[in-house]
Amino acid sequence: MIGVLIILGVVVAVVLWYFATYNRFVRLRQQVKNAWAQIDVQLKRRHDLIPNLVNTVKGYAAHERETLSAVTEARAKATSAKTPEEAIEAEGELTRALRQLMLVVENYPNLKADQHFLELMEELRTTENQIAFARQAYNDNVMIFNTAIKRIPDAIVASQMRLKEYPFWEIEEESDREVPEVKF
Fold first, then answer.
1. How far is 102 from 52, CA to CA, in rounded Å?
2. CA quadruple 111, 73, 33, 148: dihedral positive or negative?
3. Considering Cα of 102, then 103, then 104, then 110, what sign does the dihedral take?
4. What's the whole-model pTM score?
5. Which of 14, 38, 125, 128 has its CA 20 to 30 A from that of 118?
6. Comparing C-alpha atoms, which of 110, 138, 112, 126 is closest to residue 40?
7. pLDDT at site 109
8. Comparing C-alpha atoms, which of 132, 141, 137 is closest to residue 177?
């Protein structure tokens, strides 16, 4: 009789552990998705600012078509990204294109003095800061999730749930690690 109670106790403990682990993975996955959604909100704001910025620069630097086209194309690719992996890659391209645009702006003192341009740049700077904070929160949640699905014995539940690692949003190139200098 005692042996049956011990076996029943072990079975109940394993079932409770399984449910607790399953629910923890559900919570962690939702936290990663929420963190990505916060990045997505900021990226949308960034994407909405870019056409105004391009149009303002175009008024002063119309012959810089190649740079303006690169920004426009990078924005289009970024807005059409479907997965975090695609968005991370596309946003890297957009950041590089914007960096090139800022280099072009340096050659146009009248543009740098334009009030509309200055307001757009301030909004973009604020948005970039918010993206950086959201990216940090996303990476923190990804680290917690990715670690949890690899730990034993939790990895057993993770494999049954077919959980895969989420990608970190890492800086791709050495040049992306440098803070761009923007002068007005």
1. 14
2. negative
3. positive
4. 0.81
5. 38
6. 138
7. 85
8. 132
CA 42 from chain center: how many Å?
9
Token pair belonging to 84? 């975090």
Contact residues for 23 (Cβ-Cβ < 8 A; gap 6+): none
pLDDT digits (tens, 9 = 90+) for 131-181: 999 999 999 999 999 999 999 999 999 999 999 999 999 876 554 555 555
Within 8 A by CB and 6+ apart from 83, the residues are: none
Give the tokens for residue 102: 């800022």
- Gap between the Cα atoms of 4 and 31, Å rounded: 40
pLDDT, tens only, 29-86: 999 999 999 999 999 999 999 999 998 888 888 778 888 999 999 999 999 999 999 9
Reported as a single tens digit per residue, the pLDDT across 85-137 is: 999 999 999 999 999 998 888 888 888 888 888 899 999 999 999 999 999 99
**Where do we find the tokens 């997505």?**
40
Residues in the chain: 184
Token reading at 164: 């895969």
